Amino acid sequence: MKNHLYFLEKTLKIANESVKNGNHPFGALIVQDNKIICESGNEVETRNDITAHAELLCIQKFQTYQSKNYATLFTSCEPCAMCLGAIYWSNINEIIFGCSNSQLSKIVDGTLEIKSEDLLLNGKRKIKIHDYSNMKKFKEIHINFWK
Amino acid sequence: MKNHLYFLEKTLKIANESVKNGNHPFGALIVQDNKIICESGNEVETRNDITAHAELLCIQKFQTYQSKNYATLFTSCEPCAMCLGAIYWSNINEIIFGCSNSQLSKIVDGTLEIKSEDLLLNGKRKIKIHDYSNMKKFKEIHINFWK
Question: pTM of the predicted model, to two decimals?
Fold first, then answer.
């Protein structure tokens, strides 16, 4: 059984690849039964599409598998309101993130700073959240990129 | 100069077309300098994609025009958290909606019920919001569809 950090480390690799491709440092992947089903980096710059966040693209891919079962989303950074909304409509019932929105908003100006837990209080569907923002490396990739 | 209701009525027509096409009753359009730049209905069922909301698709189309100027989004129903997040990242600086999320959540179970104004308090970017939920017809299309 692979643990949370095994998959979170992978989202950081995807985020680094996104930067190499000219995009922003974000990566996400979806796991079911301890297996990676799909993954995506940020593609905002290369697609010239402000909605091309790692989590949104990953959820769009996930749907093509037409799985009716619940799945877990790992993401290098806490989802923004857009991605969290998409998660809410999807079959994701667990989110595991590295950097928090609160940490990101201190590094990049103009983000929509909202805690996933607070936003989800407005809906009935229950989604578990695991916060690994105490680990420095998920914040560091943003300090290096945005400063 | 066309008024808000002229464009809002059009979003209702788009919403009705979406239903005819097998989708959900939502429609959106984007206006710049009093002209419609692009429009979209909901395509969740026909694309088999839970992210294919009218507003998100409309914003994605809008970007292809590569306009740097601000624009106004008209939507038959107040944007969900996903679409509001997308609006926040886009060049939309004004939202005009018909049915409210609060009204919709009383008709359809399981929505993420959040007021756009409240969600936007978490960001620095200012977006004007005009609420036409006092007009019954924007709610009625949902009562007819979901009940």
Answer: 0.96
Min CA distance, A47 vs chain B (Å)?
A: 10
Select from B62, B82, B100 the residue whose CB has the most chain A CBs within 10 Å, as the one to mutate to test that interface.
Answer: B82
Give the nearest partner residue to A86 out of B51, B89, B90, using CB atoms: B51
C-alpha B109, offset from chain centre: 19
Q: Does B3 touch chain A (CB under 8 A)?
A: no
Q: Do A85 and B80 touch (CB under 8 A)?
A: yes
Residues in chain A: 147
> ipTM of this predicted complex?
0.95
- Residues facing residue B97 across a β-bridge: B75, B131
pLDDT digit string (tens) for A50-79? 999 999 999 999 998 867 789 999 999 999
CB pairs under 8 A between A and B: 94
* CB-count burial class (<10 Å; 0-12, 13-18, 19+) for A133: middle
Closest residue, chain B, to A84 (C-alpha): B82
DSSP string, B99-136: E-HHHHHHHSTT-----HHHHHTTSSS--EEEE-TTST
Task: Find where tokens 């936007």 sit.
Answer: B120
Torsion sign, CA atoms A21, A26, A27, A28: negative
